[in-house]
Amino acid sequence: MSRRLKICINTGGGDAPGLNAVIEAVTMAAHHRQWEVYGIRSGYAGLLNTNDIIRLTPKVVDGIAIQGGTILGSTNKGNPFRMPVCNVAGDCEERDLSGKVLENFKRLGFDALIAVGGDGSMEIAKRFSDLGMPVIGVPKTIDNDLGGTEMTFGFDTATGIATEAIDRLHSTAKSHDRIMVVEVMGRDAGFIALNSGISGNADVILIPEIPFDIDKICAHLMGNELNGRKYGIVVVAEGAMPAGGDVVVKSEAGLGREHVVLGGIAEYVAQEIASRTGKDTRSLVLGHLQRGGSPTTFDRLLALRFGAAAVRAIEAGKLGHMVALKSDRIALVTMAEALSVEKRVDPRGDTVLTARDMDISFGD
Amino acid sequence: MSRRLKICINTGGGDAPGLNAVIEAVTMAAHHRQWEVYGIRSGYAGLLNTNDIIRLTPKVVDGIAIQGGTILGSTNKGNPFRMPVCNVAGDCEERDLSGKVLENFKRLGFDALIAVGGDGSMEIAKRFSDLGMPVIGVPKTIDNDLGGTEMTFGFDTATGIATEAIDRLHSTAKSHDRIMVVEVMGRDAGFIALNSGISGNADVILIPEIPFDIDKICAHLMGNELNGRKYGIVVVAEGAMPAGGDVVVKSEAGLGREHVVLGGIAEYVAQEIASRTGKDTRSLVLGHLQRGGSPTTFDRLLALRFGAAAVRAIEAGKLGHMVALKSDRIALVTMAEALSVEKRVDPRGDTVLTARDMDISFGD
Amino acid sequence: MSRRLKICINTGGGDAPGLNAVIEAVTMAAHHRQWEVYGIRSGYAGLLNTNDIIRLTPKVVDGIAIQGGTILGSTNKGNPFRMPVCNVAGDCEERDLSGKVLENFKRLGFDALIAVGGDGSMEIAKRFSDLGMPVIGVPKTIDNDLGGTEMTFGFDTATGIATEAIDRLHSTAKSHDRIMVVEVMGRDAGFIALNSGISGNADVILIPEIPFDIDKICAHLMGNELNGRKYGIVVVAEGAMPAGGDVVVKSEAGLGREHVVLGGIAEYVAQEIASRTGKDTRSLVLGHLQRGGSPTTFDRLLALRFGAAAVRAIEAGKLGHMVALKSDRIALVTMAEALSVEKRVDPRGDTVLTARDMDISFGD
Amino acid sequence: MSRRLKICINTGGGDAPGLNAVIEAVTMAAHHRQWEVYGIRSGYAGLLNTNDIIRLTPKVVDGIAIQGGTILGSTNKGNPFRMPVCNVAGDCEERDLSGKVLENFKRLGFDALIAVGGDGSMEIAKRFSDLGMPVIGVPKTIDNDLGGTEMTFGFDTATGIATEAIDRLHSTAKSHDRIMVVEVMGRDAGFIALNSGISGNADVILIPEIPFDIDKICAHLMGNELNGRKYGIVVVAEGAMPAGGDVVVKSEAGLGREHVVLGGIAEYVAQEIASRTGKDTRSLVLGHLQRGGSPTTFDRLLALRFGAAAVRAIEAGKLGHMVALKSDRIALVTMAEALSVEKRVDPRGDTVLTARDMDISFGD
């Protein structure tokens, strides 16, 4: 394909360490082919308001791979298939503005869009692809819960930050004979909790995939106490749930189940442990600390490989696909395939077995 | 002093990065003089129960300076001048067991005690010193609020961790046009908030020494928005208070003032900002993350210098003193001097002026 | 298998971040099954001198996963199939002491050996396995050049350290319009150079798999200069070689080819660039910095998974195998399979393509 | 002073972590007063070629404090009092262009210059100040060898990097029973070697202020071996010298004394130790790794305080002074005072005593 193409890139959903690396690699690889490349700010919304489109050049992206966030600015500006539109009186309704997006895309002469995002963004990308827009997807999810790829960028960074936090909590928990409950990201999938909990030498790991029994957690911690380990670290994914439970936890995701518990799952677990064991117990929510900042080397490289592969996929005419990591190589999968699977921790997989072998309890 | 002395060391209060470095230096310096050195576990309580005393040798302390926490174990086991004593029925009363501590100290043949701790520990050390026990104090306070010394170990580490957290929050706050309110340690003194807030390029810093007006904070943030900075970082010390306020905040320290606010000062500030500006605002409490883990090089070195200087002070017969940092040299001050001053941020000092020069608001 | 087994573990070859994590996981998983586990110091040599065998318990290994090095001490004590034996006169000869190793192994009642090491260690392990010793291999190579597994522990840490070093060199190279040549590990395989060079935004990457032409390197750097980038970073693997070259470089590995160049490949490349371009050019050898210290979270987890999987392999009777990472799962491969392939950078693989797309030159 | 001033800033000498923080604080503090501020690229040379002057605004400096290097670009472009000037034939001579600098300074309407640099830059600044140019100095030296101030920015970062490197070397030295000799910066003053050596638990520290005897170093290391410590770490400042020695070492600074030793002082020391003790001994030069990259929180804050204080000094009319750190406060000292003292490690100071108390040898 010797024609000089004109492509664009947007980043959707929450920010993840590595977004800027994708942007850098896409820009460099496009420039290498003497293509033009543009960044669309604010997700798809930028195609509604063409003031939000910026030219990307090697100079603009020089060295951004090391930076957190995204130079394409605010990422969560809505789904063009049901975009909230409000009148001056403040009354809002959802409208399908996808036609406008498609129209602007063509009018601006773009040959392809590289859409970076999680499952929400991939669904939108697939709908546009089905409508004839040439799209390549780049997977992004800190929680690592996106199908079709073994790993996504951002996950290694988040797991590393969580592990470092757990490492730090050991010394203070030990110095005070205390139970520390630390909440990490993972609404639907417990990968961050599982991996950081094992690496960080936790005593208990609670994940959405394995419902927990608070009595078993307490029994495990008191058993440790008898063996001379008078402190404990409990790592809990934000989406962990009691078995057969009716507990409702407050979280960013809103409320579920029946009873409201202020402060999230970590505070709930800490209170229950404290009241049942009498141990000094504290909770801590890592929250946004896991999302920001410079990506690890692993995430930087993976994001750069994804970005360059997306450009090569456009060159090869493989539109409608998502780049993915398979057996340490970049592969292309259909968006349908990526969206057909919800990736979750395998309760019988070797990582969970490793935890059990190391005498870590899942409260089950 | 050519006699082979027999000395001991205890660590009191909350743990701080650098405690193990003090222990390592004391042990090495004592060994260098062919003295015997013992570690008393659980603060002064170890002198009540002599099972809690361990021999310290170069082999035991090899390489511990890099580790967080304290190898002398749990640190908060009470004040021997009013130690809680409970009978089997669970009825407790406070008793003065200082005589027992003194008696054991002499019976075990110790020539001196090195007491590492904050103002509470220094007060106890001074009382024992007044009763004739040969004591050298080593200052320890993460908040940097102890008089008599320009700096204590642990503070640089805590400030570094807070700054790194603020650095991380920038990228996510910026990507989402969000206000992030982050609570750091500092019940009485705002040094950690001030130093990490300036280093971390915060927009607002709230410290106990400068009561804040929530309206001024909001005006500052909205002014930034007009200038194109659509996100904001607010760093708040746990002890920050509204001017003329009657707000009560929940914290580890207990309650004060009148109205109960769940979740601490950061959540209160975040809620107020959100309701007044309509901005997406989140809060985060760093909590124990600031206390644990490996000390920075600065803290390691300072703690090692303190430990070795304490041994030299014993050798020189300068008992009843505390080691201190003055103009980058180790000095000895009397414990009375150390306890006579409460160290606080100087609202007219150059660090606060630096913040104001950099357009950071204190909400005043 | 309900019998209580008695197993042992040794670590061979150079140290790698993660060795202690393997030891911790093996110990915990064995203890979980109420097995006894022993550590053999000094590689296989410890089975010749049974003073070098220590009991491993949960208490001994508590928290060691975070530490660099290996608690089993010095690792390079020779191959028992040709062990140097010297008399008092200092005359040495190589003897086959494998029979003695086997005999002691049986006499001590061990049911299995977990042998951790690189290709050298795996070859020895295979020979003992062929002689009837029940062995499970755990792959260890910082360079990532071992076949049969997608990844080994230590590699992520080394790549991260190299990338951080490259990041640091950018600012000083840029401030002084300088070319910096940095030598990283990789005698036969260029994975560390390739991955850290891409992540660290290098201008040139030189690896053993792609022989380089110094003139092309200089042309690339001078081209950058014309485009306004007046400084440059060249990352060179220790085993990189000029195309058709007759250059001999000094390295730990000894000498090869014809002409002796003092100081290694980095100094050679730096001198050539300086003399041809006239640019201020400096070289730096990272050396042992890449090998020591705490493993990354990724390496810690991988090493723990390998260790626990090795114990499960013994339980399942799968002796003579090596644990391996395949598609993010732990698999078992025969030692023959692991040894049959030399893992190298694929010059047509997507990672090399990513580098080329980002305008990084391989000097070819 | 209510007039709107117009000021400029330059950065001289080698780069140091914190230069950008000074630039950020100067810009913000000037903007706060509604002054205009300009950055002079390439040291004083930018005042000879006014194309090298850029306007600094809050937007330009936003967030640069965290970055290494200097946005004012290449720093070493010569002394205007003896600037090399070459004709087309390549013949060069040194000319005094200070008049031209002064003339441009006035012509451009600048009210003051903030000169950031080490002793060389401060000498030039003083000469311009004596000629009537309104100058404020900001001290910068990684080696911490500048008089008049207790500390300069860059030093804490460099010491931290050196300590982290030493930490890493421990595990590999220990695993292989090896002596590692690591060379750190410090041509005239040994502060980095001393502080990182103590913090990093070295066995031997060699600094310019204490000439060493290689036999005493070997005796110390062999004594450790007898006590069971079979490995060793030797930290050597690049300017360390043997006592009564006639050894010449190659370094950036050029050659001195009599005999040429290739590879610098670390290689020399390593070779001597290896030949006298027979131990496996390796050397490593940290070099530019210590200079680049993001400053520590301590350095960031100090640099920001220096920058803001420089602007306040201009406002207060205190020209001809240098900002300095004294007893944890920013003070102003005359440039003459700063230049009158060469700051060196005090061989009888408490830090050296700490090292000796910890059984670290200086080879004396």
Description:
- Four copies of one chain form a homotetramer.
- With 364 residues, the first copy, chain A, is an alpha/beta fold.
- Chain A folds into two domains: 6-153 and 295-326, Rossmann fold (3-Layer(aba) Sandwich), CATH 3.40.50.450; 157-291 and 347-357, Rossmann fold (3-Layer(aba) Sandwich).
- In chain A, 36% of the residues lie in helices and 20% in strands.
- The first copy, chain A, contains eleven helices and 15 strands.
- In chain A, strands 3-2-1-6-7-14-15 form a seven-stranded mixed beta sheet, with helices on both faces. Chain A has a four-stranded parallel beta sheet with strand order 9-10-8-13, sandwiched between helices.
- In chain A, helix 6 (191-199) runs parallel beside helix 11 and helix 7 (214-226) packs across helix 8.
- The longest helix of chain A has 21 residues, at 155-175.
- The radius of gyration of chain A is 22 Å and the shape is elongated.
- The first copy, chain A, starts with 5 loop residues before the first strand and ends in a 7-residue tail after the last helix.
- In chain A, 59% of the residues are buried.
- Mean pLDDT of chain A is 90; it is low at 251-261.
- Chains in contact: A-B, A-C, B-D, C-D.
In short:
The structure is a homotetramer of 364-residue chains. Chain A is α/β, with parallel strands linked by helices and 364 residues long.
Main attributes of the structure:
nucleotide-binding (chains A, B, C, D), Rossmann fold, 364 residues, seven-stranded mixed β-sheet, four-stranded parallel β-sheet, homotetramer, elongated, alpha/beta, 11 helices, 36% helix, Phosphofructokinase_CS (chains A, B, C, D), ATP-dependent 6-phosphofructokinase (chains A, B, C, D)
